[in-house]
Amino acid sequence: MTALETLKRYFGYDGFRSGQETLIDGILAGKDVLGVMPTGAGKSICFQIPALMTDGITLIVSPLISLMKDQVNALTQSGIPAAFINSSLTGWQIDKALQNARNGAYKLIYVAPERLLAPDFLQFAQSIKISMLTVDEAHCISQWGQDFRPSYSKIPEFIASLPKRPVLSAFTATATSKVREDIAALLGLNEPIVLITGFDRKNLYFEVQKPKDKYAALTAFLSNKKENSGIVYCSTRATVEEVCEKLKKDGYNSSRYHAGLLDSERHDNQDDFLYDRVKIMVATNAFGMGIDKSNVSFVVHYNMPKDMESYYQEAGRAGRGGEPADCLLLYSGQDVRTNLWMIENNKDVEYPDKETEELLKERDRKRLREITFYCATNDCLRGYILKYFGENPPNYCGNCGSCSTNFETADITIDAQKILSCVARMRERYGIKMLTDVLRGSKSEKVLRLGLDKLSTHGISEKTDKQLREIINQLILTGYLIKTDDEYPVIKLGERASEVLRGGGTVQMKLSKEKPQPEISKKQFSVKQIDNRLFAALRELRFAIANEQNVPAFVIFPDSTLIDMCLKLPATKAELLSVSGVGQVKLERYGERFLKVIATHAT
Ligand code: ADP
Ligand code: ZN
Fold this sequence. Notes:
The protein has 603 residues and is of the alpha/beta class. The chain folds into 4 domains: 194 residues, P-loop containing nucleotide triphosphate hydrolases (Rossmann fold), CATH 3.40.50.300; 185 residues, Rossmann fold (3-Layer(aba) Sandwich), CATH 3.40.50; 105 residues, Winged helix-like DNA-binding domain superfamily/Winged helix DNA-binding domain (Arc Repressor Mutant, subunit A); 71 residues, CATH 1.10.150.80. 45% of the residues lie in helices and 13% in strands. The protein contains 26 helices and 17 strands. Strand 10, helix 11 and strand 11 form a beta-alpha-beta unit. Helix 22 crosses helix 24 and helix 22 packs antiparallel against helix 26. Bound molecules: adenosine-5'-diphosphate and zinc ion. Adenosine-5'-diphosphate binds next to helix 3.
């Protein structure tokens, strides 16, 4: 079976997403790999498919007990033999699992990092064939990351004690270049294939509001989302309590989660949310690590988080199944003060010395400034986020609060002509700064020395520096200009330049309005035309099956699969198999029941 056939057979998907194939092919060729992909991009499949295609066992080191259980549930539902070994099992259960594993009962075994060097586990690992070791949430090995886990440092020792070194694959959603280098070096990856996919999550709609009354803004936002599942993040336990209480009073099916609750209540509330018994989870940022729920359709931040990293990670828990989802941040000036206070009074961190303390606090203050700018900007919000993570996005995404209100289509043909002819006159030899300087008529020493003030295009633009950069960026993205890849990039004419220079062609782009409207209106997604009654019936069936199987509903099928059923209206098992997310085993197990519901509604 090929990787693609394996994907279809077990997971029911027709094709790989960007990046998945590269990593899978690499692993199958016996290479170490490092995958850096945003949450929801589909990292798990990158090691699960090779695990199925090689003989021997794949061990997955994962820091999160709740996530292990979900993943093993999901694999089992798809007909893939898997198990987990962590502190939630009794000694007897662990013995039993290891014994089964020795007899070849599992292809994948999830294990907590603390367990690796335990004598019984080590002995087991040395006695079987481990074809791959996967390190999930690999950034936990780096002290530079936010979630350093000392037990991750033991992984190399574990590998060294194995009779044969397995292929290593490491995955993370959050990694700056520093953390990336750390992962490769500390795990001892051997010339790994490193794949970093874009951080863009196209299905997420971003919006920032600065309401006088946050609670009113929240309920306005929730008013048409009664059926949807979502998270409301608050910065303090007290706010969680207050908001959750109010929502309950107002008839919302909500629950709460923060570190001040008893373990048992936290656990129950989390399960209620996972199993769709509760729709809205009001929580501090303690909630969500390892929540692998694919049908979260919104994430509201009731308070501004401490930095963009946290924000994007938390907001990214929405829309993991690929459907459109909303990320709303409710900002107030008080949020900045609260965060500053927390930086100054952080009790969670012990600083080794005064100097480090100041350094780290300054870093945190800088990060706080960056997210405050995010809340204040009129520019495209997605663009802001992606730039923050080092990408070069277009200035208009069309799917965020700014783009839907602050932008208008402008004819920039004249500006484009001016810019392109200036690039030509400057003989395609200079960077963007010099280009804008000349266009704006700068008399700087450098401009004069190079004689660029003599060019006929010197000073022909009345635009501001920022506007010019926006237009130039757009011209680069649309092929009128090229920015070279050098250390000092140079602007050159692109393939399409002649269209404009010869005259005739027009160029349009979305430009930010000079005076943005203060009121941010909500953009509505165009909802696919599906039979809502059928969708509701399918959800009901899924809920019933999930209860029988004692797993969360999305483990049976994600929403995207139910939606695809509504669109394709399959009448036979073969047709049902063509629905995205329906694999062989689930077809056998649940196919008939779903077909029956579809048949009764389709008439
Ligand atoms: P990550 O671990 O990167 O956060 P997951 O592995 O949990 O993401 O995948 C997120 C969702 O995307 C899951 O519901 C998964 O089944 C789905 N998915 C992964 N790969 C594909 C694919 N090739 N086609 C369709 N859906 C996919
Ligand atoms: Zn945008």
